[in-house]
Design brief:
The model has no long low-confidence stretch (mean pLDDT about 80). This protein folds into two domains: about 1-20 and about 65-93, no CATH class; about 20-65, no CATH class. It contains four helices and two strands, in the order E-H-H-H-E-H. By secondary structure, it is an alpha+beta fold.
Length: about 90
Amino acid sequence: MKFPLGTISQFTPYGKGKLITEIDEIFEVLEVLEATTDNYEVSYKQQWESFPEEYSLKMIKGIVAFEIIVTDLQAKKKLIQNKTIVEKNIKKL
């Protein structure tokens, strides 16, 4: 019998969060937003640039930016083995 194997990785960061609300910091947020769009949403960038400036500013105001300073990062890795219900019940007998 073959049993499908797999692994699960879990990373849990702990730290202190901070909302970004200062004007100077908002410009940094816009830079991060542009870089993220360039990297992950290339097709959306053209659409975004075609929007009127007033509309774009309204959209940007709807973004809640935050920063997390990670003080602890915990990781777990687990090997899993998928079994059928019949196979699981055999152990109970």
